[in-house]
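This entry is listed as follows:

___
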Amino acid sequence: MNFLDQLREAVPPHAITDLSDEMAPHLSDWLNRYHGRALAVLKPATTQEAARMVALCQAHRVPVFLQGGNTGLVGGSVPDETGDGVVLSTARMTTIQPADTANRSITAQAGATLSAVKAAADDAGLRLPVALGSEGTAQVGGLIATNAGGSHAMRFGMMRDLVVGLEVVLPDGSVESDLRPLRKNNFGPDLSGIFVGTEGAFGLVTAATLSLVDRPGALVSCLLGLDELAALPDLLARAHERFGAGFERLEFMGKAGITMALKHVPAARQPLEGDCAWTLLLEVAGRDEDKVRVDLLDFLEELFEGGIVGDGTIAESLSQGEAFWLLREAVVEGQRLAGPQLKHDIAVAVSDLPGFIIDMTQRVESRFAGCTVNAFGHAGDGNVHFNISMPAYDTVRDAEISAMIYDGADAMGGTVAAEHGIGRTKRERFRAQASPAKLALLDAMKDSLDPQRLFNPHILFAQNEGTSP
């Protein structure tokens, strides 16, 4: 009996398909830049089904490519071109337990979407403080595997800071499960860190218990017009000082991105009347909405008097605040609709953010004709999505652009993988730049957990690396 026949005996019929039309959505990425092939697509509904599938793959030495919502931007969720492996999708693992209000946590399977988990938390009067543009399709398992960030990372941290417990299928098909809502547990090393941010290289997350926080009594958003990006660190420091723990988010958008948003996204609006080079979107939380509004108004007056901003407006209602955030998301969608683009997920120290953006924009646009920089992102944690719009893709030129941007980030002591992960896009750079000690440690872990190097073999490692057969 061959491999696929054994799989069909081990799991329900609807948990496996090798039909080309059903597999097609799983064989390319969201940006349609990476394409692969597979023997089959596996869709377990439970951890036990996933474990049986993985064990059979190990027995037959079949590579396993793990996939969540397939919303990644670095090609990490797409199989390679050999066609020798299977895609294991968590799309059917969607169960969400009722929020645990006493322990301020929620447990969900890996395939539950971020929006669904947030809705379940909201029903209990709590919230999961993660905000992403793809939250309707991004899944819990993928968010953990990539250590996702988003606009709330400044205040609440990355996904690793919200993980309380995990259930994981290891590459040999065994299961490690601890979903208890314990905030203190030093009974041996915490193994969850092995699986957060390692992009499925060491195991498949099948369920997680996540930390929840209070839902604020009021959330008020404010748009600010900034002429000089150099003023951003000072503005950020002032916001921290004035609002403290109530300071939730600070996003920034450049004129190029807003222009594309207004042109290509009909619902997008720019409420600011001035022609500022940069638009900031600030959100403040508090118990009393009137007090939050008074504090925001005082803050705006302080910024105007100090000559830091040239324009600003406070959302008068929740719906207007949502329209402000729609503009922020439209910057992403507008660039996608505008045509070919290169995406770069950079983080530098907050104090270095203006200098990096200003210098790199000048270098890219002066050297590469027809290329326009769309820099936007999360000002509070130094994360800039330094994206380039261009008339058409050019492999040689595009590689040169990316190398210039990555080298610039490295020179400032930054990172080229702030929240999107490494995937296929940055794998070679990671292997070239990581310290020998770090690579040796990762290789030793891989050899211990996945000696045949079958789990996500194209991520962080290659099948022929290391000491394993």
